[in-house]
């Protein structure tokens, strides 16, 4: 039985993905558990898919799934990977390992116990920020938090960081949450936490380490500034319309 599935969304990650995959298999192999690696090519235009395929054929001893999404969007890539995961516990991590894979040891105890979800946060006092995001990204992060507090998470306890790309789930929670996900882009994280709250899942925020790699970012932050507010309002409307039941 597969104990842990690791999902990596990847848009144009031919440069960053190989080292990441090597680090992950090195760590997980040392845990002596059965695991699977789910590499999700998100409509990349570089050699990402070629790398994934060559990695999979060179490592027949590891459970590697290579998936592709027809269109771009981190949310779609994560959803595709999550819904194909068969592990008892499922992690998704960004391809740049801004939160190092070793931090899985901090999340795992929670999902092994009572929690359905354990997600990394960069915003608690115990979080360790080795390299901060650039100022404009931090300001946008703060703006998002303010908007979320009156639009989405109106009641405390509010999430301290919805956007950290390092989150772990029990398998049943994966089904419940990601089968209801409607957003393909960056606001999917907010939608998933919203659905989790609606269904009274046990969700734990866990302070993690973060070493930012924004100079190689694949996120079009300016475009998201324009589209995100409507996506957030959309979450409320979809809830009223019964999408998340
Ligand atoms: N990503 C994706 N589709 C996109 C944008 C990003 O699958 O349209 C993936 C990307 O390959 C990485 C993760 O989402 O695995 C986070 O992206 P990035 O590190 O560029 O985001 P940032 O750290 O700048 O927020
Ligand atoms: Mg990153």
State the main characteristics.
alpha/beta; Spore Coat Polysaccharide Biosynthesis Protein SpsA, Chain A; 20% strand; two-stranded parallel sheet; 245 residues; binds uridine-5'-diphosphate; seven-stranded mixed beta sheet; binds magnesium ion
Could you explain the architecture of this structure?
41% of the residues lie in helices and 20% in strands. It has 245 residues and is an alpha/beta fold. It has a single domain (4-240), classed as Alpha-Beta Complex (Spore Coat Polysaccharide Biosynthesis Protein SpsA, Chain A). Helix 5 packs parallel to helix 8 and helix 6 crosses helix 7. The longest helix is centred in the C-terminal third of the chain and has 20 residues, at 221-240. The site of magnesium ion (MG) has 5 residues, from loops.
**CATH hierarchy class name:** Alpha Beta
Helix content: 40-55%
The CATH superfamily turns out to be Spore Coat Polysaccharide Biosynthesis Protein SpsA, Chain A
What is the residue-mean pLDDT, rounded to a whole number? 97
Number of helices: 8
- What name is given to the CATH topology? Spore Coat Polysaccharide Biosynthesis Protein SpsA, Chain A
Biggest sheet, spatial arrangement of strands:
3-2-1-4-7-5-8
The count of β-strands is 9
Q: Give the cofactors and ligands.
A: uridine-5'-diphosphate, magnesium ion
Structural class: alpha/beta
Assembly annotation = single chain
Pattern of helices and strands: EHEHEHEHEEHEHHEEH
Domain tally = 1
In terms of DSSP E residues, the strand content is: 15-25%
């Amino acid at each position: 039985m597969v104990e842990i599935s690791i999902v990596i969304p990847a848009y144009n990650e031919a440069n960053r993905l190989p080292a990441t995959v090597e680090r992950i298999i090195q760590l997980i192999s040392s845990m002596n558990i059965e695991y699977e690696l789910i590499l999700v090519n998100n409509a990349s235009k570089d050699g990402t898919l070629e790398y994934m395929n060559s990695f999979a054929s060179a490592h027949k001893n590891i459970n590697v799934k290579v998936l592709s999404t027809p269109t771009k969007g981190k949310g779609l890539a994560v959803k595709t990977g999550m819904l194909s995961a068969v592990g008892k516990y499922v992690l998704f991590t960004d391809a740049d390992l801004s939160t190092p894979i070793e931090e899985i040891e901090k999340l795992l105890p929670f999902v092994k116990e009572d929690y359905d979800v354990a997600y990394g946060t960069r915003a608690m006092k115990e979080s360790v920020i080795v390299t901060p995001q650039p100022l404009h990204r931090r300001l946008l992060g703060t703006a998002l938090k303010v908007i979320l507090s009156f639009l989405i998470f109106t009641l405390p306890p509010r999430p301290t960081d919805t956007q950290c790309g390092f989150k772990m789930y029990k398998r049943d929670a994966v089904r419940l949450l990601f089968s209801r996900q409607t957003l393909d882009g960056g606001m999917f994280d907010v939608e998933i936490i919203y659905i989790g709250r609606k269904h009274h899942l046990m969700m734990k925020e866990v302070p993690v380490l973060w070493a930012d790699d924004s100079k190689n970012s694949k996120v079009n932050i300016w475009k998201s500034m324009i589209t995100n507010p409507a996506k957030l309002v959309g979450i409320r409307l979809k809830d009223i319309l019964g999408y998340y039941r």
